[in-house]
Request: fold
Amino acid sequence: MATLHEFVLHRPQSLGDAATLLAEPDARAIAGGTDLVTNLRHGLERPRTLVDLGGIPGLDNITMNDGALTLGACVTLAQLAMEPRVQALFPALCAAAKSVAGPGHRSTATVGGNLCLDTRCVYYNQSEWWRRAHRYCLKRGGDTCHVAPQGDHCHAAFSGDLAPLLLVLGAELKIAGTTGPRAIPLEGLYREDGAAHLTLGRGEFLAAIRIPAPRPGLRCGYRKARSRGAIDFPLAGVAAALELDGGRARALRVALTGTNSRPFLLAGTGELEGKAIDAAALAKLDKLVQKQVKPMRTTVTASNYRRQVAAVLAQRLVRELVQPA
Ligand code: SF4
Reply:
């Protein structure tokens, strides 16, 4: 990997100071840096200013109020996975955090960083010389997408592991900015564009994540398929939250990652509510997933495999959630 380019590093002590610094042109927020520093070393970005959010008091706090959980954006994945209150209330969230990379990464990588992870593509996440030799692509430096050369759109895939579970749990975000904080639902953070998948404006950054108290009896889980079982990004990842009422689904939410440029809630699961989770319901779920995922040739694994595996993971997970605890 190449050496880092020259930049100025700031370590603000308040949300307002951080927002002011990030409003400057060519400024970039950094927390754990496990995604960003690799990208900087690959020359994928060359910000003149890095704003380290790790010095802002409270951003590494985990708090509970009326059963709702609030995670500061700089809470590390290891901290999240080991927190007894989270383990008691949201064990699936701890499991999803533990499924990210290896222990060394999780001790540094943050919840906010995992939600704001850059999109990935086999033609993009490469060294400078590799990309130059293969011709730069549309996302940076070139004018053609090597995955879909006829189009004018980047299809790089979002690969964060926490987002799908937080989507099915109905998480809300606190976004800090120069005009003060605002709250948005998690799905509002993303758009389907691999070159600009976050909706944050200039000077804005993710400050906290609020997860409402789970309804009694809610069953949740997250499953992912990856090339290397111990440490890899998801080729496809599925989260589900299921409420049962006498063997029938009272509520079902499913969300996916790794297949599109954004994590997303599966549309149409309402059709399964009020019904038994039987073979017909799982076949319907299979169809919904296969229709809505859009895996492209952005990994070394075939697109159709990722489509199929997403549908299989969704069916297996929902079938598991139906079983008695
Ligand atoms: Fe580049 Fe296309 Fe890959 Fe986007 S999907 S990173 S434009 S090759």
Q: What stands out?
A: The pocket of iron/sulfur cluster is lined by residues 121, 123-124, 137-139, 145-147, 154-156, 194, 298 (CB under 6 Å). The first strand starts at residue 8 and ends at 10. The longest helix spans residues 303-322.
